[in-house]
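Dear colleagues,

For the upcoming journal club I promised to circulate an example of a predicted protein-ligand complex. I picked one with cytidine-5'-monophosphate because it came up in last month's discussion. The inputs are reproduced below in full, followed by the predicted structure.
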Amino acid sequence: MTSLAGRRIVLGVSGGIAAYKAVEVCRRLVDLGAHVSPVLTQGALRFVGETTFSALGSERVQTSLWDEVSPIPHTRLGQQADLVLVCPATARVLGTFAAGISNDLLTATLLATRAPVVVCPAMHTEMWEHPAVQDNLALLVRRGVHVVPPGEGRLAGGDIGKGRLAEPVDVVAAVQRLLSPKPLAGWRVVVSSGGTREPIDPVRFIGNRSSGKQGHALASEAFERGASVTVVTTVDRPLPAGIVQERVETAEQMRQAMMAAAVDADLVVMAAAVADFRPVDPAAGKIKKDKGVPQIVLEPTPDILAGLGSIKRPGQILVGFAAETSDLRDNALGKLTRKGADLIVANDVSAPQVGFEHDTNQVVILVRRPGSDEVEAIDVPLDDKRRIAAAVLDVAQSLRSGEHQHDNALG
Ligand code: C5P
C-alpha cells in the first residue's frame, strides 16, 4: 500500500449527503501519512460539522476566502498541494469549476492549483445523467482532471440509482495511484490495441474478436507510471486524457503507424490482434448476393511485430502477444525468437474468462533478458486486465534496470 507520508492534500467537501463519507476518506488519508487540509463549502457545513474535519484533518477546516489569517488562503492551499481532492463533488462544484468561476474557497483553490485534481461526483441520478453535468465532466476530463465515478445504490431520500459516491476505500486508492512513484517517467511507450479489419468490399471485412481492453489497459497503466504514451488502435474506447491516439483500421495502416511511432520509443507493445490474412483485391463496390458465392483470394498481412523486431534499436524493449488455444509455451517461445521480441505475453484464449472481450486475463510472460540465452517464464494468475498490464510493465521495467526478479528458466 503506497504511503502518502509528507504528501499535502486539499480535501474539498461540497454539499451533498455523501459528505459524511468524506469523513472516512479524511481519516484514511491521514492514516496513510498525508497532510490533509479540509476545505468545506457552505453547503457541506449543512451536512457535516467543521469540528469533525478539524479533529481528523491535519489542520483547521477552512470554509471561506475571508476567515483566515492569511489574506490569500486559496493560493496558499493551491500552491502547496500535491493533490486537490473534491469528495463529494456536487453538480454545482463541477459546473463552477468547468466554467472557470471561483465563487468560494474551494472553487478558488481549484483554479489556483497546478497539482492534480481528483473529483468524486455524487448526486441524484437525474442530475448525474443531465447533459449539462456530463458535458461539464467531459470538459474537465479533457483538461486532465481525474474522476472517481459514482456507483449505483441508495441515494438521499431513499431513491436507488446511479450517482452514489464511490466508496471511501476506492477514493483513497485513486489518490494513492496518482501520488505513487512514476517509474516510467521519461519513457516513450507505443502500444497497439484492438483487432484489424481487412476490407472485402466497402461494407464487409475480415476481423477478429479483440476488444482492445488489454492494449488500452497497458497504455493506461504506462501513462499512470509516468510514460508518454501513444496508442495505435482500431477501437474507440476511453483513454486517460494525455495519451495520444492514432486510429487505424487495417494491418497495413497499423504497420505504418507503428513503424513510425516506434522509431524513438523506449517500449513498444504489439497487443493488437492483427489479421493474418487479407483479401488480395478488395472489391470497389458492394459484392452482390445474386452474383453467386464470391471467391475471395487471401494473402498474408505484413507481420508488424517481426518488422518492429528488425528495426529495434539497442535498449528498446519490444513486447508481443500470443493468443493460443494449445501448446501455449512452445508457440510463444517460437514467436519470441522468430519475431525478435524481448517479451511475449501468452494467453490461452480457450480458457474461461481469458483473452478476447473479457475484463480478465491469465498469462504467461516469456522474457529473454539482454545478453542471456535463457528464457524465463512468469505465470500471472487470472486477474483484471489492468493488473495483467501492471505485471507486464513490471517485467519490462526490470529489463531496463537489469533486475532479475525470477529464475524460472525454460531454456
Ligand atoms: O503470429 P501471431 O499472430 O500469433 O503473433 C502474435 C503477435 O504478433 C502479436 O503481438 C501480434 O500483435 C503480432 N502480429 C503482428 N502482425 C501480424 C500478426 C501478428 O504484429 N500480421
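Two points we might discuss: Confidence is low (pLDDT under 50) at residues 404-411. Residues 8-179 form a domain with the Rossmann fold fold (CATH 3.40.50.1950).

See you all on Thursday,
B. R.
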